[in-house]
TrEMBL record:
The keyword Transmembrane applies. GO terms for biological process: lipid homeostasis. This is Mitochondrial adapter protein MCP1 transmembrane domain-containing protein. The keyword Membrane applies. InterPro entries: MCP1 (IPR039960), MCP1_TM (IPR012472), SQR/QFR_C/D (IPR034804). Keywords: Membrane, Transmembrane, Transmembrane helix. Residues 127-244 form the Mitochondrial adapter protein MCP1 transmembrane domain. Pfam families: MCP1_TM (PF07950). PANTHER family: MDM10-COMPLEMENTING PROTEIN 1, MITOCHONDRIAL ADAPTER PROTEIN MCP1. The chain crosses the membrane at residues 29-53, 73-96, 117-135, 164-182, 221-242.
């Protein structure tokens, strides 16, 4: 049989590539959430015991995610993988949108389970989290050779002496992170149970579509409530750390490090 005039089928179609990237993105999000949960608890401890308790839990929990090998997996590795997968998916969506004939022929994946600004907060987190990492990890390593001994006093110095920059950065970071992660958690769990739910569905008469819409709206309100509560709690922790920290022995060094940014 002649192969003239035929186009070889690609090894991996865009739809399959998009689905694979979604799995990579979901897995990396789950891995990063381990670090985010630990670090979030460390910060939230300030609401209970002030800067002292927050610093205590910072030192206790830090070995779990700043280990020589674990940091590259739980923190930087998972974050970079998540971002690259997301940007690749964005490129595919843009390609689909620019090719109307492809859009008509391909059923694009439905990701409406996330909140409206899930993607936007994800893109905002790239510079916000990157700047935070540079501030609290890269600069201390460049200056001291390590950052494992630095506590929340470093952040407190910035809150006290560079309030616009420090409060602006960390407030935007915790709000965007809270929104993105709370929105994404529901999507992750729904993806895991979607196959089972689809197989167990039984056709029903009545207002099943309306009930689904109502339930989705209720879930969104619950998510928004969680985002608001978590954001306020984290912002409260930041304020407490900034006000509760009185003595900062390394303040002169911190001033030099902050000077490299602002």
């Amino acid at each position: 049989m002649s192969n003239l005039g035929t186009t070889p089928r690609p090894f991996l179609s865009l739809s399959k590539a998009y689905g694979l990237l979604t799995k990579v993105q979901t897995t990396s999000a789950v891995v990063f959430s381990t670090f985010a949960a630990i670090h979030g608890v460390q910060l939230l401890a300030a609401n209970v015991g002030g800067a002292y308790l927050a610093n205590h839990w910072l030192m206790v929990g830090r070995p779990f995610y700043q280990d020589e090998h674990m940091e590259g997996i739980l923190v930087t590795g998972s974050a970079v993988t998540h971002v690259l997968a997301g940007l690749a998916k964005l490129g595919i969506r843009l390609y689909w949108n620019r090719n109307n004939n492809l859009s008509a022929a391909i059923t694009q994946p439905n990701e409406n389970n996330v909140l409206r600004y899930h993607g936007l907060t994800g893109y905002l987190l790239i510079p916000l989290a990157g700047l935070h990492y540079y501030l609290v990890r890269t600069l201390p390593i460049d200056y001291y050779g390590d950052s494992a001994f630095i506590d929340f006093g470093y952040v407190a110095w910035g809150l006290q002496n560079k309030p616009i920059f420090s409060y602006g950065l960390h407030t935007a970071l915790v709000v965007a992170a809270s929104y993105h992660m709370v929105s994404g958690i529901k999507y992750v769990f729904q993806r895991k149970s979607r196959t089972i739910n689809d197989l167990s569905k039984v056709p029903q008469n009545g207002n099943s579509a309306d009930e689904k819409i109502i339930k989705q709206k209720q879930n969104h309100w619950v998510q928004k409530g969680l985002i608001t509560g978590l954001s306020l709690a984290l912002i409260s922790s930041i304020v407490i750390i900034g006000r509760d920290t009185k003595k900062i022995p390394l303040r002169l060094d911190f001033a030099k490090m902050y000077a490299r940014i602002i």
